[in-house]
Amino acid sequence: MNRVLYLEFERCIGCRACQAACRECGGHDAKERNYVEYIDFMESRQTFPMMCMHCKDPACARVCPANAIQITKDGVVLSAMEEKCIGCRNCTFGCPFGIPKFDFEKNIMYKCDMCYERTSQDISPMCASVCPSEAIRFIGFEEMMELRRKRAQSNLLQGKKPTEQNKWNFVPETFGVYTE
């Protein structure tokens, strides 16, 4: 896999097509593994997609006493393995983003696996394949870097200058996996 999942939160229109597509993905048991959140529901209707960051050193995997959470050679953090998960829910408490959810009926954690069966074949994950506003894209590393440069230039052209408080507004939100 040599592409990344690229997010542009301000493009999200709150249609939740990504959630519906996630439910349809094979092996997801009709449960969405991504979420759409409101930035500040009391002040704005602006939404943003919330997905697993597939951290390089994932807290969910570190706190798992049964070693049920595996990381692929591509760096994708998978859901808990059914045969190993002991249902302790440490992963749900350990993730700082609140991504892993617990299925009380099956007694197992589930989370975004970046549609690994698809992405390992260089096919876009379900959420990215249906996003009408391109808030979620599965793109190559060079394209991501170009978008990142354009966004930083755009912010600067508009007279904005990064400060310590808003420096993250100048860096596109990206996550995913890139390996050469």
From TrEMBL:
PROSITE patterns: 4FE4S_FER_1, 4FE4S_FER_2. One of its GO terms (molecular function) is metal ion binding. Residues 3-33, 43-74, 76-105 form the 4Fe-4S ferredoxin-type domain. Signal peptide: none annotated. Gene3D superfamilies: 3.30.70.20. It comes from the Bacteria. Keywords: 4Fe-4S, Iron, Iron-sulfur, Metal-binding. The keyword 4Fe-4S applies. Pfam families: Fer4_11 (PF13247). InterPro entries: 4Fe4S_Fe-S-bd (IPR017896), 4Fe4S_Fe_S_CS (IPR017900), ET_IronSulfur_Cluster-Binding (IPR050954). The keyword Iron applies. PANTHER family: PROTEIN NRFC, PROTEIN NRFC HOMOLOG. This is 4Fe-4S ferredoxin. It comes from Aneurinibacillus migulanus. The lineage of its organism: Bacteria, Bacillati, Bacillota, Bacilli, Bacillales.
